[in-house]
């Protein structure tokens, strides 16, 4: 569902009373690796960055590991205390959170048909990100207004986290759009900082922020919400492809033409090509491609099902999209067709699979900070 208007589910909730579950959730270890590398790049030792966090190097290297929000805050506190002269450190940190840092959630956002649908999904599943601030998104006239809240955070790390989270959003937007988002205005509650910090903000957002404002806000044209996402950044698209390829390879290796076809099926998030398209790209007819696959004991349909089934399971358990969103990203005409296919793969419908995995269906439980109302 595309976001065209947003209303708060808790009327004008104060940022000082943000429920802990909206920010104090367990998060992927990738954020710890980003923060540790930031410290290392500035000459710190790993033990210094990890001090008092309860984390060791082995834990940070676990690809499926998680840490508590308060552990991440301690990592940030260590960076702030050890590098007090780096007034733009939060901005630098946020620019290191790329689409691929978020794993399958990043892939799901990148595969969204429009910016509005990507923001809708991202906002609903904030606990799949590394955000410590919370935000509200609303349409006011012809513009979108995003308000960031941070008063629930410790004062000694609050500005770093605000800078980090806003820079991470800008980085994500740039990568899924393939270009910078055109902001109309950037509002900040903080007092006007030194010129080099103002310059860093201006380069990040593309406009000079206004300081001493009542809220921390970003404003941009509502028309951008309807803009198709082109997956235009080749580097990010390639990394997403590699990430998905590793997932599928774990289920069984392929060689020859079958491997080429399967890799091509994963190359473009949000668009799975058909056999005619792939055979043309490979410089052969679909009949010749079918003959090659048959000789290798494979078929185009089996490869397509292999890719779809693997990504479907991952998107349900790790990115927690709705069934309709998954169907859309895997190239199904409608959700019913996807549900029938999943039942064929797993012997149970998606809802039962999720229940067996202990995954709550999106929207079926837990607090919702915002709900989306179609115009």
Automatic annotation (TrEMBL):
Keyword set includes Secreted: no
GO molecular function: DNA-binding transcription factor activity; transcription cis-regulatory region binding
Keywords: DNA-binding, Transcription, Transcription regulation
UniProt entry tagged with the keyword Transcription regulation: yes
InterPro entries linked: AraC-type_N (IPR032687), Homeodomain-like_sf (IPR009057), HTH_AraC (IPR018060)
Taxonomy, superkingdom: Bacteria
SUPFAM superfamilies, alphabetized: Homeodomain-like
Gene Ontology CC: cytosol
Residues annotated as domain HTH araC/xylS-type: 255-356
Protein name listed in UniProt: AraC family transcriptional regulator
């Amino acid at each position: 569902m595309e976001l065209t208007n947003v209303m708060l589910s808790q009327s004008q909730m104060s940022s000082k009373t943000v429920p802990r579950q909206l920010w104090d959730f367990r998060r992927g270890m990738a954020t710890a690796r980003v923060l540790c590398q930031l410290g290392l790049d500035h000459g710190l030792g790993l033990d210094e960055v990890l001090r008092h966090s309860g984390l060791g190097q082995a834990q940070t290297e676990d690809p499926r590991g998680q840490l508590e929000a308060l552990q991440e805050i301690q990592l940030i506190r260590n960076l702030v205390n050890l590098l007090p002269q780096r007034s733009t450190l939060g901005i630098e940190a946020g620019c290191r959170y790329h689409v691929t840092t978020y794993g399958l959630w990043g892939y799901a956002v990148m595969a969204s048909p429009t910016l509005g649908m990507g923001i809708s999904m991202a906002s609903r599943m904030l606990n799949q990100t590394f955000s410590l601030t919370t935000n509200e998104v609303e349409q006011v006239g012809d513009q979108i207004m995003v308000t960031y809240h941070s008063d629930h955070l410790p004062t000694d790390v609050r500005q770093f986290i605000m800078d980090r989270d806003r820079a991470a959003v800008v980085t994500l937007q740039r990568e899924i759009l393939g270009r910078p988002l055109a902001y109309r205005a950037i509002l900040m509650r903080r007092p006007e900082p030194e010129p080099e910090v103002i310059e860093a903000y201006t380069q990040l957002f593309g406009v000079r922020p206004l300081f001493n404002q009542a809220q921390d806000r970003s404003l941009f044209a509502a028309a951008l919400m309807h803009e198709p996402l082109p997956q235009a950044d080749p580097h990010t698209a390639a990394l997403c492809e590699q990430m998905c390829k590793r997932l599928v390879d774990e289920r069984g290796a392929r060689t020859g033409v079958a491997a080429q076809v399967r890799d091509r099926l994963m190359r473009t998030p949000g668009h799975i090509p058909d056999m005619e398209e792939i055979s043309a790209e490979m410089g052969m007819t679909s009949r010749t491609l079918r003959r090659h696959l048959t000789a290798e004991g494979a078929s185009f349909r089996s490869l397509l099902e292999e890719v779809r089934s693997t990504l479907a399971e991952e998107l349900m358990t790790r990115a927690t999209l709705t069934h309709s969103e998954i169907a859309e990203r895997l190239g199904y005409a409608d959700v019913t067709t996807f549900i029938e296919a999943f039942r064929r793969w797993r012997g149970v419908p998606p809802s039962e699979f999720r229940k067996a995995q202990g995954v709550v269906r999106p929207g079926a439980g837990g607090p919702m900070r915002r709900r989306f109302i179609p115009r």
